[in-house]
Amino acid sequence: MSAPSAPATVPSTSIPRPVTPSPGRRRAVDWRIRFVVLSLIWGFSFLLIKVGTHGYAPFQVTFGRLLFGTAVLAVAIAVRRERLPRSGRTWGHLFVAAFLLNALPFSLFAYAELTIPSTLAGICNATSPLWGMALSLVALSEDRPTRRRVAGLGLGFIGVLTVLGAWQGFSGLDFGGTAMALLASLSYPIGWIYVRRTLAGTGSSALAMTGSQLFLGTLQLAFVTPMFTSLPERFPLFPTLSVIALGALGTGLALLMQYGLVQEVGPTTAQMVTYFIPVIATAAGVAVLGEQLSWNTPVGALVVLAGAALTQSRPRPSTKPARVPGRRPFSRS
User: Fold this and answer.
1) Which of 95, 165, 226, 330 has the fewest CB atoms lying closer than 10 Å?
2) What is this structure's pTM?
3) Which range (161-170, 194-203, 291-300, 322-331) has the least confidence?
């Protein structure tokens, strides 16, 4: 959902390199259309979480999400005949990754939306790049901070304070729910750093790795959910449909679409979907759920997105030719 990013569950180092489709294998649907569809799916995920919690406990919503998401990826793995990881060490690292990138943040968002609107949860999700930048400053990531990226971190922090209405003393804000949503967003970059350091170069495809990861996350929730919840006595229609859609579309299908975009247009363009998620989540929450929206929420969200974009910027490679000491540069004169 973050791409990361929302929401991707594997880092760019393990995502297949972009390829140029051959004339005989053109995509049936233009990548721009699929980009828009992916943005809508992930943007509406926060609305689906909210509706799901109207009929089920947060852990049950997360379990259903992982279960249906895993089912979609399992079908894709079987159709493509992908090989699952065979190393026990790899499965151990995937177990930790499943907790940091799936079980923990998905559960935190579900619990958060018991007390905060889906619009705020979607905006909190957009702070993941800011958390990633903050982690790089304390040497938890190999990404080197630059002036522009540090400025983006500061700008994003101002945006968060604007969304939360800091000048009003955070009045009317549920601290518990907001804290859980922000912790969920923090969990993503921690998980990405862990995956990048432990699972790069395993030899397995991104699809097989992510499918295995979601399967382990499902097992984690299958163990935890009965400890904190009881079996539902009924299955209300809209919450049930929301959980199914959240898993099958918002997790399984969305990841498949993202991998297709990465292969076709590259990870940089594919990751731009992250900046559309809070906008769509806010619009969906207001239009469908009738959530209240004050001026500081959209303004702060735009500031957060601007800061997040700066933290993801990279210095342009120098185009000047290297100069050999003791020799004059080539000239046509």
Assistant:
1) 330
2) 0.82
3) 322-331
Least confident of 100-104, 108-112, 318-322: 318-322
Scan for tokens 């699809």, then name that residue.
207
Distance from C-alpha of 149 to C-alpha of 306, rounded to nearest angstrom:
11
Name the CA dihedral angle for 173, 306, 183, 67, rounded to a multiple of 10 degrees.
110
Say if residue 68's pLDDT is above 80: yes
Residue 245's alpha-carbon distances to 125, 248, 285, in angstroms, are: 19, 5, 17
Cβ distance 182 to 127 under 8 Å? yes
Q: How far is CA 77 from CA 66, 73, 188, 323, in A?
A: 16, 6, 24, 50
Cβ atoms of 134 and 268 closer than 8 Å: no
Give SS3 for 244: helix
DSSP string, 18-86: P-PPPGGG--SS-HHHHHHHHHHHHHHHHHHHHHHTTTS-HHHHHHHHHHHHHHHHHHHHHHHTPPPP-
